[in-house]
């Protein structure tokens, strides 16, 4: 007899029905949820057309003339590269650790999702990789998540899956890999493998080694936590995990794993920071030029953006020269700053002169900010003295964290000497070296392109050039006697030093090479002020200069770059050449957009003979005059001409050097015009500015790469020029003239220039 089966109770059937309906409801809800995301109810999902037309925002790159990458302009630091430039070991490292089944799935890898979930959650095995495919990660790279709450994470995940499926239908696997490696973030606003390779190893993607590739790919799990610069031990551990994953996928042998895991990181870190790196002032000037160029181009129908279009800017700068010049600047300015502070001692104006410091404080943003709160001057100054907090004080020994007030900070930075140093190739106008200041992070003001300073005796050659063009012969003699000009309110220019020159008469060459002020004014008188001003303009100085006799002593304020342009006339037979920063610009595919040609003036400001005479006179400045320490101290044997300059009260120190292939200018002084050097011996151009050239040229001479700049000679002057300069440098007044001249009484006359 068959045993009677018990039928399920109605209650059990009811529960099963409810569960079934619940599962069906959840499944239906989930399908509807996915459908709502796909329809865009949770935010727009890009269409296939939009995905196929996406474009990278690419950084523009700045190169030196010798093809060294020195800077970038970007919103996102990214330089896309082609698939062909990815080495096999890079692709293998990425696939091994991030998406082993990359070539087998169609955007979503459900098998790997389950595997990763089990291995990561149950077995705590982080070698399993991530749950998202590379295609999903690409979707996230292209359309970053905006919010981080739990609901949005689910929505974003599903969106990324939908986008991944669409991407797989548009692009093949190689294209997806290319797009991924060009968009993935490596932290610190660095996107794409090319930018990462340049930043961490100073090399291009195509040249990275297996160990380097494993290090960079290893960062992708946590760009901060596995940053090899910040956490080298963690980075090595992660790199080795990637290498073992490559072995597990049969991409490298066990011997290679051992070999690569023994390698040191050996970073060559180069951060393309706006404030740091080589030639920051130059890069900023290039940026300004580029913004103007892009604006002009776009006004004519183009659509370029300096920060996103991936332009390549090839400049005139010589990387090796710039590097040497910056090193020399640090060496010289460190010593000079020490001498400068010692010369003042405890009586330094930034220490003793409270009124001056308050005057300087009024120019600061801190003062102006408090002024907007309607506080009075005394209250503001009191607040600036009491505002004590931790600050980073920069000096030539490094950065120091100190507790100080705002006034302490103003006092600290007021005392620093600054500089501007520029070198141009006068044959083509190329700017080879550009040092706009001592520290771009602290002092943004560029002393080459922005600062106008009195140029002192460096203006005298222009005065002498005008005189020669007006018919004054080089062997004309001028008395060094000090004269008081009654029609110039008793102005009486004197000479530096204690030498008794009342009875001496100098030739033009001797007067210029020794920078005798009294003679410069008398040469100006012969040349005529208007003729001198016209000469300055014809030589490329557009600045409005004072129509006064003091112009002979360089009281006019001129930018370094404009004065350098004027001096190029002496190497180009009277024609000045416009300094040039940029040689050519290309698009991101290296197609040339524009090339800039040399811009030589059409007409000569002076004759070839006058130019030769001036070169010979300025050679004397180097051989026996105020710049003779180039020979005696620095041992330079190059064919050189030059001119030193020092302004009134030792506010500005200048030096100009000329060679057949270089025009070099250096200025040294303080940004606060009220403070100068304590004495002429420290503050004269020959001591404060000339060493920047002397030390630099000495290093150029030791490197054969620069022979084209260091071994050349000026053309031999013509016989007529040699004859015109063939006279005694100094003549002393005769007996009877001396008898009736009172050296203690200034000669008074009317200036007639």
From TrEMBL:
<dbReference type="GO" id="GO:0009002">
    <property type="term" value="F:serine-type D-Ala-D-Ala carboxypeptidase activity"/>
</dbReference>
<keyword id="KW-0573">Peptidoglycan synthesis</keyword>
<keyword id="KW-0511">Multifunctional enzyme</keyword>
<keyword id="KW-1003">Cell membrane</keyword>
<dbReference type="InterPro" id="IPR001460">
    <property type="entry name" value="PCN-bd_Tpept"/>
</dbReference>
<dbReference type="GO" id="GO:0006508">
    <property type="term" value="P:proteolysis"/>
</dbReference>
<dbReference type="GO" id="GO:0008955">
    <property type="term" value="F:peptidoglycan glycosyltransferase activity"/>
</dbReference>
<keyword id="KW-0328">Glycosyltransferase</keyword>
<dbReference type="GO" id="GO:0009252">
    <property type="term" value="P:peptidoglycan biosynthetic process"/>
</dbReference>
<dbReference type="Pfam" id="PF00912">
    <property type="entry name" value="Transgly"/>
</dbReference>
<dbReference type="InterPro" id="IPR023346">
    <property type="entry name" value="Lysozyme-like_dom_sf"/>
</dbReference>
<keyword id="KW-1133">Transmembrane helix</keyword>
<dbReference type="GO" id="GO:0008360">
    <property type="term" value="P:regulation of cell shape"/>
</dbReference>
<keyword id="KW-0121">Carboxypeptidase</keyword>
<dbReference type="InterPro" id="IPR050396">
    <property type="entry name" value="Glycosyltr_51/Transpeptidase"/>
</dbReference>
<keyword id="KW-0645">Protease</keyword>
<keyword id="KW-0812">Transmembrane</keyword>
<keyword id="KW-0378">Hydrolase</keyword>
<keyword id="KW-0808">Transferase</keyword>
<keyword id="KW-0133">Cell shape</keyword>
<dbReference type="GO" id="GO:0030288">
    <property type="term" value="C:outer membrane-bounded periplasmic space"/>
</dbReference>
<protein>
    <submittedName>
        <fullName>Penicillin-binding protein 1A</fullName>
    </submittedName>
</protein>
<keyword id="KW-0472">Membrane</keyword>
<dbReference type="GO" id="GO:0005886">
    <property type="term" value="C:plasma membrane"/>
</dbReference>
<comment type="similarity">
    <text>In the N-terminal section; belongs to the glycosyltransferase 51 family.</text>
</comment>
<comment type="pathway">
    <text>Cell wall biogenesis; peptidoglycan biosynthesis.</text>
</comment>
<feature type="transmembrane region" description="Helical">
    <location>
        <begin position="21"/>
        <end position="42"/>
    </location>
</feature>
<feature type="domain" description="Glycosyl transferase family 51">
    <location>
        <begin position="76"/>
        <end position="246"/>
    </location>
</feature>
<dbReference type="InterPro" id="IPR012338">
    <property type="entry name" value="Beta-lactam/transpept-like"/>
</dbReference>
<comment type="similarity">
    <text>In the C-terminal section; belongs to the transpeptidase family.</text>
</comment>
<feature type="domain" description="Penicillin-binding protein transpeptidase">
    <location>
        <begin position="424"/>
        <end position="660"/>
    </location>
</feature>
<dbReference type="GO" id="GO:0071555">
    <property type="term" value="P:cell wall organization"/>
</dbReference>
<dbReference type="Pfam" id="PF00905">
    <property type="entry name" value="Transpeptidase"/>
</dbReference>
<keyword id="KW-0961">Cell wall biogenesis/degradation</keyword>
<dbReference type="GO" id="GO:0008658">
    <property type="term" value="F:penicillin binding"/>
</dbReference>
<dbReference type="InterPro" id="IPR001264">
    <property type="entry name" value="Glyco_trans_51"/>
</dbReference>
<dbReference type="InterPro" id="IPR036950">
    <property type="entry name" value="PBP_transglycosylase"/>
</dbReference>
């Amino acid at each position: 007899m068959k045993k009677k089966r018990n039928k399920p109770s109605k209650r059990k059937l009811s529960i099963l029905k409810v569960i079934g309906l619940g599962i069906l409801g959840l499944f239906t809800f989930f399908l509807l949820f996915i459908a709502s995301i796909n329809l865009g109810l949770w935010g727009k999902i890009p269409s296939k057309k939009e995905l196929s037309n996406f474009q990278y925002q690419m950084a523009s790159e700045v190169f030196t003339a010798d093809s060294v990458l020195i800077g970038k302009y970007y919103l996102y630091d990214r330089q896309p590269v082609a698939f062909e430039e990815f080495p096999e070991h890079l692709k293998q490292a990425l696939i091994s650790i991030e998406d082993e089944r990359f070539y087998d799935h169609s955007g979503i890898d459900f098998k790997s999702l389950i595997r990763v979930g089990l291995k990561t959650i149950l077995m705590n095995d982080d070698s399993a990789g991530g749950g998202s495919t590379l295609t999903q990660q690409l979707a996230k790279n292209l359309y970053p998540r905006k919010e981080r709450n739990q609901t949005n994470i689910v929505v974003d995940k599903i969106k990324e899956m939908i986008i991944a499926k669409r991407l797989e239908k548009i692009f093949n696997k190689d294209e997806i890999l290319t797009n991924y490696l060009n968009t993935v973030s490596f932290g610190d606003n660095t996107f794409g493998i090319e930018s990462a390779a340049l930043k961490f190893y100073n090399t291009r993607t195509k040249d990275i080694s297996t160990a380097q590739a494993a290090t960079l790919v290893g960062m992708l799990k946590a760009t901060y936590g596995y940053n090899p610069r910040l956490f080298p031990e963690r980075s090595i551990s992660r790199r080795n995990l990637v290498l073992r994953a490559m072995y597990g996928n049969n991409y490298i042998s066990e011997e290679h794993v051992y070999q690569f895991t023994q390698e040191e990181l050996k970073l060559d870190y180069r951060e393309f920071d706006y404030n740091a790196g080589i030639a920051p002032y130059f890069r900023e000037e290039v940026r300004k030029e580029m913004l103007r160029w892009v604006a002009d181009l776009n006004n004519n129908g183009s659509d370029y953006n300096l920060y996103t279009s991936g332009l390549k800017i090839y400049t005139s700068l010589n990387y090796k020269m710039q590097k040497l010049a910056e090193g020399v600047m640090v060496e010289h300015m460190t010593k000079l700053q020490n001498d400068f502070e010692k010369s003042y001692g405890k009586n330094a104006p930034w220490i003793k002169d409270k009124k001056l410091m308050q005057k300087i404080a009024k120019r600061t943003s801190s003062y102006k900010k408090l002024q907007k709160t309607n506080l009075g001057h005394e209250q503001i100054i009191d607040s600036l003295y009491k505002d004590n907090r931790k600050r980073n004080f920069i000096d030539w020994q490094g950065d120091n964290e100190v507790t100080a007030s705002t006034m302490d900070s103003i006092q600290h930075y007021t005392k620093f000497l600054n500089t501007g140093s520029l070198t141009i190739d006068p044959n083509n106008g190329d700017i080879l070296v550009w040092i706009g200041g001592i520290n771009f992070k602290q002092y943004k003001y560029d002393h080459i392109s922005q600062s106008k300073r009195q140029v002192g005796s460096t203006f005298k050659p222009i005065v002498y050039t005008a005189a020669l063009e007006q018919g004054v012969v080089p062997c004309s003699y001028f008395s060094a006697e000090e004269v008081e000009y009654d029609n110039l309110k008793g102005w009486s220019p004197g000479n530096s030093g204690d030498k008794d020159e009342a009875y001496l008469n100098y030739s033009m060459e001797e007067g210029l090479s020794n920078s005798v002020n009294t003679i410069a004014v008398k040469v100006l008188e012969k040349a005529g002020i208007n003729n001198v001003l016209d000469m300055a303009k014809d030589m490329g100085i557009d600045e409005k200069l004072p129509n006064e006799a003091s112009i002979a002593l360089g009281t006019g304020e001129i930018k370094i770059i404009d004065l350098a342009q004027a001096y190029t006339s002496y190497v180009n037979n009277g024609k000045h050449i416009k300094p040039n920063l940029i040689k050519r610009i290309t698009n991101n595919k290296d197609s040339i957009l524009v090339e800039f040609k040399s811009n030589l003036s059409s007409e000569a400001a002076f004759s070839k003979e006058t130019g030769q005479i001036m070169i010979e006179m300025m050679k004397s400045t180097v051989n026996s005059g105020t710049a003779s320490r180039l020979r005696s101290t620095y041992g330079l044997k190059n064919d050189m001409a030059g001119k030193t300059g020092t302004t009134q009260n030792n506010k500005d120190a200048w030096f100009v050097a000329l060679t057949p292939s270089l025009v070099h200018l250096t200025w040294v002084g303080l940004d606060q015009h009220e403070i100068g050097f304590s004495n002429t011996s420290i503050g004269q151009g020959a001591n404060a500015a000339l060493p920047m050239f002397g030390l630099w040229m000495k290093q150029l001479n030791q490197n054969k790469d620069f022979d084209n700049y260091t071994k050349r000679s000026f053309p031999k002057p013509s016989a007529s020029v040699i004859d015109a300069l063939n006279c005694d440098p100094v003549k002393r007044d005769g007996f009877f003239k001396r008898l009736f001249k009172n050296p203690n009484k200034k000669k008074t006359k009317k200036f007639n220039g």
